[in-house]
Amino acid sequence: MARTLSMKDAINEALDQEMTRDPNVIVMGEDIVGGTGSPGEADAWGGVLGVTKGLYAKHGDRLMDTPLSESAYIGAAIGAAACGMRPVAELMFIDFMGVCLDEIFNQAAKFKYMFGGKAETPVVIRAMVGAGFRAAAQHSQMLTPVFTHIPGLKVVCPSNAYDAKGLLIQSIRDNDPVIFCEHKNLYASETDVPDESYTIPFGEANVVREGGHCTIVTYGAMVHKSMEAAKELAKDGVECEIIDLRTLSPIDMDTVLESVENTGRLVCVDEANPRCSIAADVSASVSQEAFDALKAPIQMVTAPHTPVPFSPALEDLYIPSAERIASAVRKTVSH
Amino acid sequence: MARTLSMKDAINEALDQEMTRDPNVIVMGEDIVGGTGSPGEADAWGGVLGVTKGLYAKHGDRLMDTPLSESAYIGAAIGAAACGMRPVAELMFIDFMGVCLDEIFNQAAKFKYMFGGKAETPVVIRAMVGAGFRAAAQHSQMLTPVFTHIPGLKVVCPSNAYDAKGLLIQSIRDNDPVIFCEHKNLYASETDVPDESYTIPFGEANVVREGGHCTIVTYGAMVHKSMEAAKELAKDGVECEIIDLRTLSPIDMDTVLESVENTGRLVCVDEANPRCSIAADVSASVSQEAFDALKAPIQMVTAPHTPVPFSPALEDLYIPSAERIASAVRKTVSH
Amino acid sequence: MSDNPFPLSRDDLLTAYRTMRTIREFEERLHTDFARGDIPGFVHLYAGEEASAVGIMAHLNDNDRIASTHRGHGHCIAKGVDVKAMMGEIYGKSTGSCRGKGGSMHIADIDKGMMGANGILGAGAPLACGAGLAAKYRGDGGVGISFVGDGASNQGMFLESLNLAAVWNLPVIFVVENNGYAESTSVDWAVACDSYVDRAAGFGLPGVTVDGTDFFAVYEAAGEIISRAREGGGPSMLECKMHRLFGHFEGDAQTYRAEGEVENLRANRDCLTQFADRVTEAGVITRAELNAIDGEVAKLIEQAVTEAIAAPLPTQTDLTTDVYVSY
Amino acid sequence: MSDNPFPLSRDDLLTAYRTMRTIREFEERLHTDFARGDIPGFVHLYAGEEASAVGIMAHLNDNDRIASTHRGHGHCIAKGVDVKAMMGEIYGKSTGSCRGKGGSMHIADIDKGMMGANGILGAGAPLACGAGLAAKYRGDGGVGISFVGDGASNQGMFLESLNLAAVWNLPVIFVVENNGYAESTSVDWAVACDSYVDRAAGFGLPGVTVDGTDFFAVYEAAGEIISRAREGGGPSMLECKMHRLFGHFEGDAQTYRAEGEVENLRANRDCLTQFADRVTEAGVITRAELNAIDGEVAKLIEQAVTEAIAAPLPTQTDLTTDVYVSY
Ligand SMILES: Cc1ncc(C[n+]2csc(CCOP(=O)(O)OP(=O)(O)O)c2C)c(N)n1
Ligand SMILES: Cc1ncc(C[n+]2csc(CCOP(=O)(O)OP(=O)(O)O)c2C)c(N)n1
Ligand SMILES: [Mg+2]
Ligand SMILES: [Mg+2]
Fold first, then answer.
1. Residues B297 and B327 in one domain
2. Total beta-carbon pairs less than 8 A apart between chain C and chain D
3. How far apart are CA A91 and CA A100, in angstroms?
4. pTM of this prediction?
5. Nearest residue of chain A to residue D158 (CA atoms)
6. pLDDT tens, D211-255?
7. Does the interface ipTM go beyond 0.90?
8. In angstroms, what is the span from residue D152 Cα to ligand 2's centroid?
9. Is the beta carbon of C179 within 6 A of some atom in ligand 1?
10. Into how many domains does chain B fold?
11. Cα dist. D219→C120, D6, D62, D179, D214 in Å?
């Protein structure tokens, strides 16, 4: 049965169902329970934005608060995964990767290869990504390109509640290390979500809108901005096909290429900074693989090459807008 | 006067000359002097591969060995830079970025912007990059795309001794944080190097070979592989124009675009892993900016999407070879 | 007026009180304005901890550098950052200390020796080492101060810095502002040592713990270790035990605290009340003088808010400036 | 034969000696082969430190996990990794423990509880915490052991792990293999504490220091803290003071060491000699028995090298396999 759930609740439900199904699943992070050692309520926080709220009541000590030592506890999650557990570790904001990246990119990501296949590291690292929260330069980054660059990691970034649940369950069952990126500005956004457990396979993009004039490839919160842009463009008779990548590594280039073969035009939309971005990555692959199909230059719509500014007035300019996307589509369509 | 110098000695000389010129320049890193507190010789190492050897004798305590605490000493270099010093900190291998990235990407890179322009952080972080040393997965990465992605950082990667000296002097005098990437397999390679001090400006690529049939854009050790490939191709009458980017951020797209306008064909060669790479970045920019000039799909030659393997037999297959570059050129030329 | 039994002159006492009151008023006002929805982003209030910032900063000049935390307003004000510019910043205006680009967690003023609030736990400690290194190298007698919370004291960057400062014998003070909680988590659970004096000793540092709500205790302990650092005696750790009077950040329901905890703290452990009682009971300063200051401060903060609200927003051109000195 | 005064049976003593000798022979051989140019990459030899690995691993079974360092051959051999597969790996062959993909710094054998040598200083400590966490969660009585050098003990990842293990009360032992140097830098300069016992105390951990060249001292100290961890008594730190008999890595000219230092260590502080003297002087084992083992071990290593040289190299298809379980 499906009900309407927010992405936040869908993530909570995915964790709940997987913890119930598999005793090897444990969850850890800073204040993901909350109140440990404190005199008041246990389960006081459920994470800084309440995503894990209520799970402690059901699963008790399988949810563990941690000291503020990301290298130690994310590394411990990775070590436990190498010993057969399926830990889900929360790195509150992806911006904090700088204090624990070694355990992620030199350890988890490389174990299997370095050890000649003799290791599996089924760890999930959940982290909030993205701008729009007025959280400024150190709490608003995407950083998806950094993780996508690293061989050995899988990178997931859902755009809605339904996908978030299915992709998180898949991430937990997956036998490779997964960076699960949750756009904090989507937590409140709702879709229908089945109450039973389900998975969405990695490397399968979702065509969220069909259209014959221009392909838009994107992911995360930019899916919604792209939909907005497409609605505007449709008024002028320009029909966009919008592809939500859902997973950035592996990436479903087949669906992208198929669409571009059809439309001949591509706009890559990425909330990340422009250099070496997902937008650039998709653009480069398409222009190599579908060169002859392209009728116009691929356009990239990304954040500028700047940190994320604090002031709402600036942050709203920083985040790619439906208008910028629409004008990129117009540019390519009119080429 | 110019003499023949190895890239290692050119770097040493750049440090020496800048330390002599500017008392604010200090140099720090693990064993960059060597022997601190030990009973034997002082200046025992001069860095793990001897790059800073001899500088202690001339500049004394302005070279500082550090404990094995990259976050602390790289962060200290950044803090000292914000207080008006010009520290050059050595992060031995760029692969170690995971233990100190926060200080680099959330602090140094963002100070100026976050503080509304009220900060300058003239720090240089030197690090060895690249494969070919049989140093395996955690001591052989390029990782240039990760730093290039981050706004606020400048990223430099010289391909030869002459450029290394001029670019390092520029890096030290530059008022922004610079990641200075030294390809360890180029340390022994020699060019003519003037003995006087000189700078090479950032954002000026070097056309190291002219040719009208195909543009090759690359940097670091791949410049030499590309030259090899070009020599082979010339035998068949295919003339490549080779562009050595020298700095990846800022990047000189003008020179690249001008060349592609002329040749109509582009091969991007990058020793980094493929996803969100420099190769993809350049390819995406060119296909957006020079779409109509392109006569064939842009080809990318990169390392595979794998960690760096240890066995020489595998590592030699991992590193893009002159043959792979040549065949990419042939593919684009014959399109 | 009776003899002054305090180690500060009457003027300095009045200044200290004014600074503490300014911080308190600033924070109380932000609390109200945030609740009204006027202030964007994450805001962490320092109220209740004023004696630490002010007791320490009383020993510093512009040449000394501090590296602050996410809970940085108090450090900024005590270090002399302009209060109106701070308010403008928090309101996201182009008149702000950072022209609206930084916000509450990133206020800095290098000229005042304020190297930045910081959104990353522990990140300030290496920066303070760098400040200490620069001062030592130049022989200018300056010190670097790293503020860190009890929770952040478990961060690798902070721990590494303790060792580095000791090994390099830097003029650096590590101030642990132990307010009992890291977000909702208790320090008693999260920090595995009997006392910060032990943790300091594990890195060869002298450590001292004081009641951080007692301005005079902080002032004296800080004075001693700061002079030692200035004279080449190396780094130390200072633990200030204190309390925050609001939630971790604005919006925190604080259900992890004990029933009546905050009320009790406000009644019995408020550093401002304690300071006022001490100086008036000693007969050095009158209630009337303090009340006058309270009135002036209230006016200042009111003005700061009015001006912040009236100030212009940053615009498109500001978006891409000041990423680099040159590019 | 006289009564056995040792805490190990004669058989166990012989096994311990054989393991120590195997490590020594393995390393001496690598030293020679590296100098001849047969071995690629960075190679860090464990020779001189055998009593630590073997004295600790004597208490472990396959269910216990260790996280090793860049100087990992000794830990691997003591934990039961196949010596021939190790040699194959170091020679870069497809018969190697990691099929040639890892090399000296990345040998692992998860089935044996060997979670990997590691090219990154301090990175093993969180992993060992994870092993301890898994063991604790499953209640299987297993322990996690983190090996770390004196230099790496200043790494944030290591320091954070001390606190985490204490806070979570994990069955984890942090073994500091203090060989006096980090590359060329002295521990006396680089580690700012009087003793590792102090550093442990700074994180609420019991700490003990032993002569790491004395197999029996290591064995007894490790036995006690490992059983305590198994029984839920939580983490500890064990410092083994020891010496390396070769350079930091092969190719190191070691000019930072004192004149005659290594010769002196070989003559007077060699853990193998000390062990042999102790057990023969006690009359529990004869020189002839030890000599016989030496001969067998020499043969084994010789064979391992011969087979490694003869083994096939990995090929193009190997390049891209085993990045992911599925992709
Ligand atoms: C590296 C990092 N991890 C986590 C956070 C999220 N965070 C912000 S404040 C905070 C609690 C800090 O507690 P403490 O250090 O005691 O300072 P206090 O808030 O009590 O002043 C946390 C977990 C962060 N900003 N940076
Ligand atoms: C994070 C990191 N920094 C630096 C290095 C380079 N490095 C490798 S071994 C070593 C010295 C280690 O000293 P110690 O921990 O005492 O171990 P030992 O070599 O003496 O066994 C250094 C600096 C590294 N591998 N990883
Ligand atoms: Mg606190
Ligand atoms: Mg050592």
1. yes
2. 67
3. 9
4. 0.98
5. A72
6. 999 999 999 999 999 999 999 999 999 999 999 999 999 999 999
7. yes
8. 6
9. yes
10. 2
11. 42, 11, 18, 18, 9
